[in-house]
Write a structure and sequence with these properties.
alpha/beta, Rossmann fold, 6-stranded parallel beta sheet, globular
């Protein structure tokens, strides 16, 4: 069995769950996996000190190497980094940034190398999930059998990443043995830098999102009358069209609207909270989310169209469809390419209202429900991970 080292921008314990966590869990059914909770930088650590809720186990390790390596499944280990790295993104000099970033990478690499020695990992595959800075030099330092860069999200569209990420992501993609992308658009963009770039879309946990399971309505929405239009996920103005939602909720007063997930400050202070037909449940555990989706008559994903959302694969659409639910979503490029035949797409208040009304009329259609479930099941994590293994095997044959 060939081991994997996985690095990511997201820590293992992220409450909403992540694509890379799901990939790691599925890979670990077949191969040993070391998932690296890469360290915080000093600036992020100081913010965490101001907000105790942001602190995690890594702050308490005190350089105890043995405590930093924990086994969570038979073939899956989590490696915490009991140290902080330099905060360097404010540096404008490319040369100085690269020098200090290499120092940060070297410190992380030493800790990973210690862990792989403890676990007797030989000739591992390095899978870098969007971690452009902290994993940039890991191929050079760890010398894995295969290195893979995965563009799962368009992080370089965010202000923090633009100064150095726009420059470094193409370099990281080009020096990786394989590059993979979460959508056709991302594949086209990353494929400019590495001819061995392949499509690896997000999957859905079909065991968790299973409409055949008995699902009692959660206590906090049992009182909500039907019909219900619902959304699960992070409510952030960067990705979601808050103005569209406010207009829709106001116009469609005969419908109840349920929003399940954490909110940014824009949403916390929006007019939505003052409307009588809206219900905010707050953040929920990953395993609780299907209970909410099961109660929705129609599921929505009212995204803004911008450089962050347009090519990004929306995992929640697969989750909605796996539950057999009618879906109305913004017509982003990925929705048009992948989901158009199984969802209703809209762009403005009028078209959203029209499509939601249509979707409500289809909510009890058994044939459509079965079609949605079958389509989503073809996107299972098992299928996606087998696709990853196939890419790796093909690459090895060509070497």
């Amino acid at each position: 069995m060939k081991p994997f080292i996985v690095t990511s921008l997201q820590q293992w314990e992220l409450e909403l769950g992540t694509t890379v966590r799901s990939f790691s869990l599925e890979i670990a059914k077949h191969h040993p996996v070391l998932y690296v909770n890469t360290p915080l930088d000093w600036a992020s650590w100081m913010k965490g000190m101001l907000k105790p809720a942001l602190r995690d186990r890594r702050f308490d390790l005190k350089r105890d190497k043995k405590a930093s390596l924990r086994q969570v499944q038979e073939k899956l280990w989590i490696l915490d980094c009991p140290f902080k790295v330099l905060s360097i993104n404010f540096i404008r000099s490319k040369r100085l940034f690269d020098l200090l970033n290499k120092w940060n990478n070297a410190r992380i690499a030493r800790h990973i190398r210690w862990a792989t020695n403890e676990l007797h990992f030989e000739h591992p595959t390095l899978f870098i999930d969007n971690d452009i800075f902290r994993s940039f030099y890991l191929k050079d330092l760890l010398k894995p059998a295969i290195s893979i860069y995965y563009r799962r999200d368009y992080v370089i569209g965010r202000p923090y990443w633009k100064r150095h990420g726009v420059r470094l992501e193409p370099l990281l993609a080009s020096k990786s043995d394989l590059s993979m992308a979460n959508s056709v658009q991302f594949k086209q963009e990353i494929g400019q830098y590495n001819p061995k770039t392949y499509l690896l879309e997000t999957g859905v946990n079909i065991h968790q999102y299973n409409p055949s399971l008995i699902m009692e309505a959660p206590k906090d929405i049992r009182h909500v009358r039907k019909p219900i239009v619902g959304y699960t996920g992070y409510l952030t103005n960067m990705r979601l069209d808050r103005d569209l939602l406010e207009a829709l909720v106001e116009r469609m007063s005969d419908v109840e609207w349920v929003f399940t997930g954490p909110e940014d400050e824009d949403f916390k202070h929006s007019r939505l909270h003052k409307m009588p037909n809206t219900h905010f449940t707050g953040n929920k555990k990953v395993e609780e989310l299907p209970l909410y989706v099961a109660q929705f008559d129609v599921c929505i994903n009212p995204q803004r169209i911008n450089e962050i959302t347009d090519g990004n694969y929306p995992l929640k659409i697969d989750e909605y469809l796996a539950m057999g639910k009618p879906v109305v979503a913004t017509a982003t490029q990925i929705m048009l390419e992948t989901f158009a035949a199984h969802t209703h797409l809209a762009n403005d208040v009028d078209s959203y209202e029209k499509m939601i009304r249509l979707a409500l009329s289809e909510s009890e259609n058994k044939t459509l429900k079965e079609d949605r479930i079958a389509f989503a099941n073809s996107h299972s994590w098992e299928n996606r991970t087998q696709t990853l293994f196939t890419y790796i095997e093909d690459y090895q044959k060509q070497r």
